[in-house]
Amino acid sequence: MSNSGNLPVIVALLAATLRMATPLIFAALGGVFSERAGVVNIGLDGMMTAGAFFSIVATISTGNPWIGILAGIIAGALVAVIHAVLSVSLRADQVVSGVAINLFAAGLASFLIYELYKTNGQTQVVTGIPYPSVAISKIPLVGGFLAELDWFVILAIVLVFVGNFVLYKTSLGLRIRSVGEHPSAADTVGINVYAIRYFCVILSGALAGLGGTYLSLGSIRLFRDGMVAGRGFIALAAMIFGNWKPKGALYACIFFGFAQALELFAQGFGLGLPTQVYQALPYVLTMLALAGFVGKTTAPKADGTPYVKGER
């Protein structure tokens, strides 16, 4: 195949990479905020599941996908409240709390699918958010590429830069980072450590819920058991790979998104590897990234450590 013949395939691959990376970007950005404030959030996978499921439930009930998006964000945030209460107020083990949330969310969604719709495994298909692909494709030079994206992809990238600005250019970001590094010192100067941690954990749930919403409402437009498929854990790996920074997490998510997109285009590039290799590739890369880069990254000093007011 000539280079000119390869160009449409390459453009489609790049667009698919961003689409695959989008739910990871939302969840990883949520993880950045939670862990920058000192709370490990292993429960991102469950929060994504809650967002994916309840966005479809709300869309089916109202016929309005915008309400579905809002419901997905709220669902993720409400699950995060559970994690915040357990981790911040009750000082439970944050990893155990996150794992419990993952199991709870998956089980609840599975149970409610049958209770609400009398079907096993998946819901009906719903109408998604319209995207003017035809009009966008007429933009010179980049129109063909942008036409293969959607509003969620654009929002995810915008939120990364907004998140980076908030963390590093605002007083709120300074408070968040100080709580994650030296909570007792932050408390001494009048920063409410508990309030900041609650805010960041709930924000992480809302963002993860938005990531789940994209998987269901923005992608295949239904909810199916197991559709999150460990993406919350890949998002955590991307966050670590990106050194707990929004932009770093973005680049890592694009890397993992490319691994997922490659499965769709492998035949087009004439690669003769079995399909299972491409299906396993994102998870293999996740393990390799964690094995190779964990020692080279620096987590916030108080990450995973419950704070007790008055203790030094």
From TrEMBL:
<feature type="transmembrane region" description="Helical">
    <location>
        <begin position="277"/>
        <end position="295"/>
    </location>
</feature>
<dbReference type="GO" id="GO:0022857">
    <property type="term" value="F:transmembrane transporter activity"/>
</dbReference>
<dbReference type="InterPro" id="IPR001851">
    <property type="entry name" value="ABC_transp_permease"/>
</dbReference>
<feature type="transmembrane region" description="Helical">
    <location>
        <begin position="151"/>
        <end position="168"/>
    </location>
</feature>
<feature type="transmembrane region" description="Helical">
    <location>
        <begin position="189"/>
        <end position="210"/>
    </location>
</feature>
<feature type="transmembrane region" description="Helical">
    <location>
        <begin position="39"/>
        <end position="60"/>
    </location>
</feature>
<feature type="transmembrane region" description="Helical">
    <location>
        <begin position="222"/>
        <end position="242"/>
    </location>
</feature>
<feature type="transmembrane region" description="Helical">
    <location>
        <begin position="95"/>
        <end position="114"/>
    </location>
</feature>
<dbReference type="Pfam" id="PF02653">
    <property type="entry name" value="BPD_transp_2"/>
</dbReference>
<feature type="transmembrane region" description="Helical">
    <location>
        <begin position="66"/>
        <end position="88"/>
    </location>
</feature>
<feature type="transmembrane region" description="Helical">
    <location>
        <begin position="249"/>
        <end position="271"/>
    </location>
</feature>
<keyword id="KW-1003">Cell membrane</keyword>
<protein>
    <submittedName>
        <fullName>Nucleoside ABC transporter membrane protein</fullName>
    </submittedName>
</protein>
<dbReference type="GO" id="GO:0005886">
    <property type="term" value="C:plasma membrane"/>
</dbReference>
<keyword id="KW-0812">Transmembrane</keyword>
<feature type="transmembrane region" description="Helical">
    <location>
        <begin position="6"/>
        <end position="32"/>
    </location>
</feature>
<keyword id="KW-1133">Transmembrane helix</keyword>
<keyword id="KW-0472">Membrane</keyword>
